[in-house]
Amino acid sequence: QLARCISFFFLSAVLLISVSEAQLQLWQHYLTYLSGGKKHDFYGSGNLDSWWDNKVSHVVAIEGNYILYQEPNFAGKALIVLEGDAVPMSSDWNDKLSSVKFLGNGCVKRGIDFAGADIKRIPNVPTMDGCMKYCNEEQRCKSVAHDVPNRNCWIKTGERGARVNIKAGVDSASKSCYQKKALPRIEKCVHKDFDFYGADIGSVSAADIPSCVKSCQGLANCKSIAFSKGTCWRKDKRLGANPRAKTDVHSVEMICVESC
Prior knowledge:
Layout: H1 2-17, E1 24-27, H2 30-35, E2 39-42, E3 46-47, E4 58-61, E5 65-71, E6 75-81, E7 86-88, E8 99-104, E9 109-115, E10 118-122, H3 128-137, E11 143-147, E12 152-156, E13 163-174, H4 175-187, E14 190-191, E15 194-197, E16 200-205, H5 209-217, E17 224-228, E18 231-235, E19 242-245, E20 250-253, H6 254-259
Antiparallel strand pairs: 1-2, 1-4, 3-8, 4-7, 5-6, 5-8, 9-13, 10-12, 11-12, 11-13, 14-20, 15-19, 16-18, 17-18, 17-20
């Protein structure tokens, strides 16, 4: 258990270091983005220099999440660009970009509201993990917005809600990204070809082990899972009732996932 936690903390340190490597590509003309024309790799936050100020026609968020501004020092009209976005500047933005604010890496978009497309609001949810648990329990849910000061959780049908807004105190995340980022931590806790047999509190369909683990996290008395070929068994004992080797069954203790 200690070795798993140390490995996870080492992974976290590597991810933290990668923040300094966040990269936003700036292109001076949309067509040159397609044909390999002039570009500039922008890191962190700040004003564009004279070579690029008011000369950008296309941006690509290679890593990280950003707010673009039409005036220096993060002023004027703003545009949100999230990791993975490739955005040709519209007529309102073409050759008008002057400053960039870096919001951080990762699935949780801090200070960003995935507004609209609400399924429901859940009150008294203190953490993003808790908010995402409600999303995992709802088949239609694809993202969440977490109002941190007021402890409200909105679960959404859209991958980014219906629209993306800047809003202090609200953090947002998509379910698909959140589950994907959780995989390295979960993998260190998987007992492969080993069945935590018995002590079942029900089974559900699950696409993979992370999805199975997430379904267990939504249950107060779930302490472990066993997963095989699309079926997830949730357990109320850490090792089930009768743990044993079994091919194509993979098991996870929740205490391992949650304590690291």
